## 1
Amino acid sequence: MKLIILIGSFLIFSNLNYCQNKPGFFDYQEVKKSFKYYIKNLEKVELLKTKMNDSLISLVNSFKKRTSSICGNYTQLELEKQRKYLIEQHEKIETFRVYALNELKKEQDNLESITEEKISAIMKSFCGLKGILFLSKRTDLLYCENCEDYTAEFKKFINLKI
């Protein structure tokens, strides 16, 4: 009798467990784009991009102004000074452009990395709460039979956690 009860309980609980542990996936890009932390910090990166772009435009405009003012009767020495100055300004613009691109890339990469870490940590909490044993990004899956799409639920959950 005990054996029948034990087997019956095992079947009931293992069946419930199976239903709760349905594997699933989520659309990482969709979740990331709705993640409040990402949105807020992406605005900061965009602001930095605007500032860098404005600074670069200012440098280019002063360069254009200087080049357009070079017309007239200059001595060879004066022309050589102007040429050296313009070369220096051009190098300054190019150096700033490279610096700005590197800084923006570093900020964007940092944002992506931290966002992925935060989403991963929240995903573990989500899986624990929902009893999900396997949850993956949609792009990481080659094939998953009977997988459930948890994107909508995870989007709601992730913004409640922050």
## 2
Amino acid sequence: MQNKISTALTQIVKSSGYEIWTERVGSVTHPVVLLTSGAAAHARFWTDLFCGILNKNGYGVIRYDHRDVGLTTGPDFLDRPYTIADLAHDAAAILNCYGISQAHVVGHSMGGIVTQLFASMYPERTLSMTCICCGPAAATASTDIPLTPEEKTTLAETYSINDTNKPTENFEESLPGFMRMWKRWNGTLPLDEDLVYAFTKEMYTRSAQKNLIKPHPHMRAVRLGLDTMEERRGLLQKISVPTLVIQGEEDYLLVPRRGGIALAHELPQAKLELIPGMGHMFFNRECQEMLGRLIVDFLDMQK
């Protein structure tokens, strides 16, 4: 069972016509960590266990639902398309609403791209940046290198498993497909099935969206982002904040060489942590505890 947090307070933040669901854990008078989830992932991706580690070590935490995820509501994507940069502006709106001038920003996967854009657009508000299992937000020499045959095979196997996951509006009916996909995304670490169950269940039970059974708007936003990476070439050289990059060595969704390794290579100030066995996701308690401790140690160094 997860360690439940009893002191969390929720607040709706308005940003560009969206009402963004946010949850604060701990005091915002402490140094605040803003947690940004990946594509289609709700706020509770950041588990109570993980948030509790940050909280117990003196950090306030804010986790939130992106546009088109969880309990956040707003315009239809087709009526008002948005970019990942718009999601970075949402992060700033959240800090504004809570009266926070500066924060440590942490992002996973697409959330790591959001975090990079936030740090580039709001350097004065970024105390530090932590990116987990994500690549550079801009084209780089590392991302220019083509995939190897082995890397192509690994990705093809992942996409094949992803394609077998065809969720319906019925949770129990859809769970086996999600479980196969999460197992692949978890790398070689043991899969804590109750963590997976809780995360997937909340995709259904705490959702104002109907995006589970059709292409998610975030995939379109990510595609727009990929198509404009060349335009952002050189962006990472503008980021000078203290940076921690965490990359799973068994990330079968994002080739590590073009993910965290490439990102850290572009940021001379970055500290790179390669995690053996960890995949793109980390549905494993021991791994979550380790990540929490790594991040706390890094944040403590910024004091």
## 3
Amino acid sequence: MPSGSAPASLHVANSLRLADRDLKDAELLLREGSRNASYHLEQAAEKLLLALLTSEDIHVAVAETHRLDILADRLPEEHPLRDPMRKLAFLQAYATAFRYVKTAGRLPPPMPADKFSLASEALRKLIDGAARHFEVDLEAKDNVPAGKVERMRTTRTELAPVRAGDGDTRPRR
């Protein structure tokens, strides 16, 4: 959560940038056959939730960071991403137990490819939608804050995604 010296706009922007990077890393690792792809998928969801909660001025305790179910439930009822994020709470298992050998010495099975694909596609839409809402250039340097930190209350799917390259972080129609 934001410290007293760093504005929420910078925390929101950089949490979204980290979510975007974790999602890209997850997809890259999946193509390489790495079982760690699922972990980065969970991390993308976690960082997206941290951005959303920061915009709501909701503090997240360190003990809650991998608990996607708890984090999603802390979003206000009227938040448009609350339900989609709750549906992705299953990813939290890939942040903890999945990464360790089971008591019998076996490895937990990897996430099925179809489940990974659905979660990845959903996260891409959610991250891009949040970046549009908060006017965040996902490719900008880490000293570039969000254009706004207005709470999300409606979806804005009709807006084209903001991408790096032109320096313009305003949503486009």
## 4
Amino acid sequence: MRFDDSKIEEIKSRADIVELASEYLTLKKACRNYLGLCPFHQEKTPSFTVNREKQIFYCFGCGEGGNVITLL
């Protein structure tokens, strides 16, 4: 199923990426970001960051990144 761009933007504006990620990961506040273990690769030291202000995530370990839609 394909959603139109306006529906995707509506979902992005309503969903909070930190709340969504916290349902699946343990995140800890670190300055402006939240840190946790990356769900995309095996790691022991947290390199997965979530930025509530920008509503994006990025993993410094594997390079995976995106928004609330791509996190799903």
